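User: I'm curious whether this sequence folds into something compact or stays loose and floppy. Could you predict its structure so I can see for myself?
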Amino acid sequence: MAYQSIWYFTDIPSKIVDSIEEDLKVKFDPHLETSKVGVGLGGVVDADIRNARNTWIPTSHWIGGFVWHYVQRANRENFRYDLSNIDGENLQYTVYGEGEHYGWHNDAGIETFYIPTKSGNRGNPEQITQDFINENCEKVRKLSFSLLLSDPEEYEGGNLQLLDEIGKPYIAPRIKGAITLFDSRTKHRVTKVTKGIRKSIVGWTVGPRWK
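Assistant: Here's the prediction. I'll summarize afterward.
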């Protein structure tokens, strides 16, 4: 039986996590911007749904290889999905300050899939050709992950909460350096931070459309 989510206590030495934070602070903190929702559609700022700051880290950064190791391990041991790469070849570095949160959402769903322009075999040759290309090249989010960088004593609230298959909520580990991986169709949220700052690196792995 496979699990909806899985996590690893990576046992990264605290000094290493601190080094990651320091590297991000120098190279990426200056680029933090207000987080948006619906990024795939261009993105809009809606603080009622999502209130945080984020920027993007290319997977060529050394942390990308560290994360990819755990993606592959989790997929091999539990999910067994057909994965190709990290979405957009970027990791999202997200910072939640006091009063900030991300409401219930999922990272993938039927509504995010490509919608054919033709109906059955009807349509002009150009439509049919474009649909064939899009339907056979489309990649969808299958596996999401979140690497926690903050020590639980540095903030209050800010829990990564997920819903299981029967709608029962549960909380991912609040351990510095822990990485949580879950099916991208899983509904989840980050509860409001009531004190301090919560930092994490999140992302999504993609593969061929579900069949």
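Summary: The radius of gyration is 18 Å. The CA atoms of residues 124 and 152 lie 58 Å apart.
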